[in-house]
Amino acid sequence: xxxxxxxxxxxxxxxxxxxxxxxxxxxxxxxxxxxxxxxxxxxxxxxxxxxxxxxxxxxxxxxxxxxxxxxxxxxxxxxxxxxxxxxxxxxxxxxxxxxxxxxxxxxxxxxxxxxxxxxxxxxxxxxxxxxxxxxxxxxxxxxxxxxxxxxxxxxxxxxxxxxxxxxxxxxxxxxxxxxxxxxxxxxxxxxxxxxxxxxxxxxxxxxxxxxxxxxxxxxxxxxxxxxxxxxxxxxxxxxxxxxxxxxxxxxxxxxxxxxxxxxxxxxxxxxxxxxxxxxxxxxxxxxxxxxxxxxxxxxxxxxxxxxxxxxxxxxxxxxxxxxxxxxxxxxxxxxxxxxxxxxxxxxxxxxxxxx
Length: 355
Prior knowledge:
Elements: H1 23-31, H2 33-46, H3 48-51, H4 59-66, H5 70-81, E1 87-88, E2 94-95, H6 98-101, H7 112-117, H8 123-126, H9 130-135, H10 140-145, H11 149-156, H12 158-182, E3 190-194, H13 200-208, E4 213-218, H14 220-223, E5 240-244, E6 257-261, H15 268-281, E7 287-292, H16 301-314, H17 322-331, E8 335-341, E9 347-352
Parallel strand pairs: 3-4, 3-6, 4-5, 6-7
Antiparallel strand pairs: 1-2, 7-9, 8-9
Helix pairs in contact: 2-5, 4-5, 11-12, 12-13
């Protein structure tokens, strides 16, 4: 008769003393990270958080509100509740948690469009090629689609481009107020926001400092949709100048203070050209403030290191460490005078143009 094993065999995950390794479940959780990300995306796409009010609701009620099949929606929400996104009450109803509220579109600190942006359909095509990106110096996204990332967005994925615009707008608005509170202008009369998107940072600074004037430089299609406060007829228009252009080509703006926020994450050559163009345009002694996420000295390293790989795959770019960013700035001729945290995600690198 064949005997029945009554004790599990020792495996590579079980130490010699027989105590199961904690590493195995942790690794399993990691490799199912895609399922977690897909679940967050599904809830955001369906608008579950928007449909759920202050009172807990049944899965059936939510399914009717978002147009889903109740049993399958229940499975999705159970998976999310295991991660703290939504909660299940004792009677089986669904309630909000701190994280699920961030998926509401009307939340002041909403991450709905950030979550959608980081899980757009094209992301699932690039992540499996990460080993290829690590082996070579080519851009995986370009090889898959035969064109650059932003060209693809605007030509082939307009819906994704709109999600990107909303995600960047949300992120910029949330950090603009923090940056305006953090920044000591040091007597500057003219500020230039380089690659500043729709100009939320500039608008926040102009509102806080009534004597300040400012310029917003970004691509023509971006500044055409600048913050309404800065455009003709807006309350800040008389003190704001909108400058269409590409900071990697030229910076036709003179100012006392240049702000470069979260754009030095392209390929190294683009970063070098941008910094060199700022130095060429700035008057002697001008202040240059570079604001970036960091791969080191930051409580947000898990997010930033993941974003670093995201950039590697899709635009051939990178997030910087303190040393690498100081090296790029010094190479451009800037004298770095200080580094300080703006919030848990951003650090400010203060510098001066030689004079």
